[in-house]
Amino acid sequence: MPSLKELRGRITGVKSTRKITNAMKMVAASKLRRAQAQAEEARPYADALKCMMSELSEASRTADPSTLPKLLVGTGKEKIHLLVVLTSDRGLAGGFNANVIRSVRKEVRELLSEGRVVRILPVGKKGADILAREYPDLVVEKVAGTAGRDVGFDKAEYVGQKIISMLEAGEIDCCTLIYNRFVNAMTQVVVQAPLVPWPIAENDNKSEVLSDAPQYEFEPDEETLLAQLLPRNLQVQIFSALLESAAGEQGARMTAMDNASRNASKAIDGLTQKYNRTRQANITNELIEIISGAEAL
């Protein structure tokens, strides 16, 4: 049975941990409000650009594929597949990073089983460390994340330019973005969004999105617009995913720290009860010894 001194030390240690987790929860909650607002503000622009790309892609279906940008139609092959993985730079966020890594493992297994070559571009220290350890030959470059700071568009520009350069050099044929989409503070959904080739929306889905939208005549021609808009669209979609991931990280961390604080409180209650019982037992034993000694006299 632990002594009273040991129990006091445990209680003090758990209380110190609870202070830290409470502070981290409040910091995450403060950052979450800003990150959530940024992610929600970016969604309409990213979605509108997706609709524009879908309409341009639909209008270009009859064109010669060799004249279309590779970002739209790819290389014509599906041999080399690039996975862009967004994770956080910091831990203590529950299953935020683990869920993304689990999805990446599944996708890698499926692609390798189909005889394809896989390349991985991790964005974020946590994911980069795990993937570099598990797939050292597949990681092409480690890209630092935002480390909890505001997400800058320059990060999306760098990743987008990296994808374009690899595509133009023939190093990849397809590209998929894997990240956590923010739903609320307790829920983040892992999303796999194809980037190359750009997916052409089905007619049914497209009609729902664009049912109230006007039809446009493009000038200059669609191919020229695609060459200019596709790189920008790639960067915008990556930037929107980075914002979603940043909001999801703070939400996951806030929830994880709240659960940790609750568990610490339960541990403190259990240790305090054990401490009181041990102290009461020691006092009872001392009284018995005193009474026994008095009766012996």
UniProtKB/TrEMBL annotation:
InterPro entries: ATP_synth_F1_ATPase_gsu (IPR035968), ATP_synth_F1_gsu (IPR000131), ATP_synth_F1_gsu_CS (IPR023632). GO terms for cellular component: plasma membrane; proton-transporting ATP synthase complex. It is found in: Cell membrane; Membrane. It comes from the Bacteria. GO terms for molecular function: ATP binding; proton-transporting ATP synthase activity, rotational mechanism. Keywords: ATP synthesis, Cell membrane, CF(1), Hydrogen ion transport, Ion transport, Membrane, Transport. One of its GO terms (biological process) is proton motive force-driven plasma membrane ATP synthesis. It is a peripheral membrane protein. Pfam families: ATP-synt (PF00231). Belongs to the ATPase gamma chain family. Produces ATP from ADP in the presence of a proton gradient across the membrane. The gamma chain is believed to be important in regulating ATPase activity and the flow of protons through the CF(0) complex. This is ATP synthase gamma chain. It comes from Swingsia samuiensis. The lineage of its organism: Bacteria, Pseudomonadati, Pseudomonadota, Alphaproteobacteria, Acetobacterales.
